Prior knowledge:
Blueprint (H helix, E strand, L loop, with lengths): L2 E5 L3 H17 L4 E5 L4 E5 L2 H13 L4 E3 L1
Antiparallel strand pairs: 1-3, 1-4, 2-3
Helix pairs in contact: 1-2
Amino acid sequence: MTYCIVVRASGRELDRLRTHAAHIARDQKSDWWVEATEKGKAFCFEHASAMASFSAACEKDSIQFSEV
């Protein structure tokens, strides 16, 4: 199953989010990827716990997101 969060970010903010996602996925031994959607960039993870950690990082940085 895939767990995704859609964020609206670009440039350095998007790069920073990719770095967060890579670290979270590595720590939790989960695969991840980014997909372009109409609403923004979807950060997708194989495990729900990785998605939960990523959403917490988004909340901490005041980045709006929605779960898919």
